[in-house]
Amino acid sequence: MAVGARSGGEEPEERPDRPPLSGGTDPGPDGADGRRVPDDGGGREGGGHGGSGDDDAFDEDGAGGRKPKKQRSFWKELPLLIVIALILSLFIKTFLVQAFSIPSGSMQNTLQLGDRVLVDKLTPWFGSEPKRGEVVVFHDPADWLEGTPTAEPNAVQKFLSFIGLMPSAEEKDLIKRVIAVGGDTVECKKGGKVKVNGVELNETSFVFPGNTPCDDRPFGPVKVPEDRLWVMGDHRQSSADSRWHQEDGNGGFVPVDDVVGRAIVIAWPIGNWATLPIPETFEQPGIDKQSRG
């Protein structure tokens, strides 16, 4: 029934379907005092959480019916993180970069005993071959290290070496400088300089001070076979290099397939940090002119 205007003398009509408020005021259709309740902007009248548009909301304690998802404990995630780190280390060692420790003084003063170098293992995967002047690590080609004692690492050292976090002490690898590559003719006479394809090398920037180029073991001329390298240590009078192994099965040459990679930087100790570029003497004009036959 519609409510119309009343005179002041009429009794108010009872409405049993709507109980009176505790304060004695009968609310109208728009609010407690007959005024329209403003819209709060969320598509419902009246503020607070009582409107139907807030069905998906929940309090911090989950009062809305859904509890917030708990984060996994750091200690539960730690083993997974360790496994991922180990896998990455093994991948890096196998395909990208590996650390090696210098076991002798045959590359002084370029490399000191105990230095650790990082070796690039990636570029050989793309067909890159060693170049003249590079310092390379290679597997023992023909028992060059016969009789040389090797260290006995403990279980922890073996594991760290396996995943690449520590240089291997068991692998029989050597490190020398590439002097000549396949197709080159190399020689060195007593009192003279090393020649590659008839071009004399100026080795003062890397040969150990006071050493001669080859007076202790002159050689050549020798022609380097394809896919082979002629290598020499920078400490000439303390390096059993290609000169000293010409009677082995490879004629003193190192097969390219035995090369692990190029040493690119001295990483440890920090005070010895340095890159290992190719000396300028190996970029001389005419050094690439290989003789035929």
Based on Cα principal axes, name the global outline. Answer: elongated
Computed Rg:
41 Å
Mean pLDDT: 77
Structural class call reads alpha+beta
Encode the helix/strand succession as letters: HEEEHEEEEEEEEE
Biggest sheet character: 8 strands, antiparallel
Q: Per DSSP, what share of the residues sits in E-state strands of 2 or more residues?
A: 15-25%
**Number of helical regions:** 2
What is the count of β-strands? 12
Distance between the termini: 121 Å
Oligomer: single chain
Poorly predicted segments: 1-13, 19-63
What percent of residues adopt helix (DSSP H or I)? 10-25%
Write the layout of secondary structure elements.
Blueprint: H1 74-95, E1 97-101, E2 116-120, E3 135-139, H2 155-162, E4 173-181, E5 185-188, E6 195-196, E7 199-200, E8 219-223, E9 228-232, E10 254-255, E11 259-268, E12 274-275
Antiparallel strand pairs: 1-2, 2-11, 3-4, 3-11, 4-9, 5-6, 5-8, 6-7, 9-10, 11-12
